[in-house]
Design a protein that fits this description.
elongated, 0% strand, 9 helices, 75% helix, mainly alpha
Amino acid sequence: MENGEFRQSESKEKIVAIYSDFMRRIGQYDELVSTGSRLVVSFQQALGFLGRAPIDKTSTLVERIINAHGSRRVLSYFEAGCANSHDRVQNVSKLHTCHVGLQDYTSKAKEVVDELEFLLGNAASVVQTSKAKGGDDISFNSDSCITSSLQTAKEKDEDISCNLDSCITSIDQERPDVADYASMMAIIYSMVKQDHTMQVRIVSSLNHKSSQGELETYCQMWSLRPFVDDDIMHKAWNLVPGR
């Protein structure tokens, strides 16, 4: 094997190892997202119970029920809004537990996102080294995609997605090279970073005054993950060796 080919093979091995580690962490992040989704739904349910309107005792039907079964116990139950104290205590506790759990979620998810950023930086270094050693497979498009993601990773409230169409089009799914792995990492990182930013904003907005309409929207957004393209994620997983 010629010296140049050996160097390219070495770069390929490095980038594949980094990419595999990167996608393993994506799997961890996805598991965390599912946990967070369940916590948001539970928060909505608990707050919905606590904010439930009392039964309208002026209703003809309710009046008939009270008259037919007007025991002291039934009357006290209606006075309490048809909710016993045990249920209220349980839901207050559930509300607190969910909120603490979501705070813990955002912290753990951030750790994973930071690890993804670190691995993307390693991939960028491999790309630059390969290019410096005469690699002819490093496109300007790859450099641009990686640089864009790294540059904006520390900026808040920014749309950090690069030109996904051009990046994806340039990736060879059958015979991926150093640039292909690095470009895919940059694309995935951009999507995950925006996904996590959305989740942090949702968690910071949750409080006992949140309306059911707000909470329903939060649950849907968390579940839908609008910044994450499922087709791109499928292609990304297909690039993992051995899958």
